[in-house]
Amino acid sequence: MEPTEVMPIVALLSIVTVEFGGHSLLMFITTRRGTLGELRERFFRAGHAHAGVLLVMSLVYFLYLPRADYSNGLEWTWSASLLAGVLAQSGGFFVHLWVGQPGARSVGTALTRTGALLIAVALIALSAGLIGAL
User: CA separation (Å) from 56 to 41, 69, 98?
Assistant: First the structure.
């Protein structure tokens, strides 16, 4: 199987989990106002929003990846890097929500930054491949 056939399915199914997260956030806000606290609610929203936007971006990524003329192995590498980055970046907000303190770094902060780096690598790789295929 090609990565551009499998990974969009993973992304689409992941969007369903983002929808469930949105429902959970809505339930916290409307039925248990104040139980999360301002910091945790802010990080919950940030993680949820980043996950949704980045997963939709990944669907566009997978449309363009075959045009870059990479080998099957490199397509798997860049696809995995992108989705791992999406999970790490958005997941880092949730980790910080659980273990972080106001104004302090945590393992969640490091995870979010690592995710951003993985996403950047995947996007630069796609850009380079598209330029090379011109």
Answer: 23, 22, 26
Which among 123, 9, 129, 3 has a CA at the least distance from the CA of 75? 3
Query: In the chain, what are the domain boundaries?
Result: 3-132
H helix or E strand, kind and range, residue 118: helix 107-132
Give CA–CA dist 41/26, Å, rounded.
10
**pLDDT category, 18, cuts 50, 70, 90?**
confident
Burial tier of 130 (Cβ tally within 10 Å: 0-12, 13-18, 19+) = middle
Structure confidence at residue 21 (pLDDT):
77
pTM of the model: 0.85
* Amino acid occupying residue 57: M
Crossing angle, helix 107-132 and helix 72-99, to 10 degrees? 160
Q: What DSSP string runs through 43-90? A: HHHHHHHHHHHHHHHHHHHHHHGGGG---HHHHHHHHHHHHHHHHHHH
Q: What is the mean pLDDT of residues 65-84?
A: 95
Question: Cα(99)–Cα(108) distance, rounded to whole angstroms?
Answer: 8
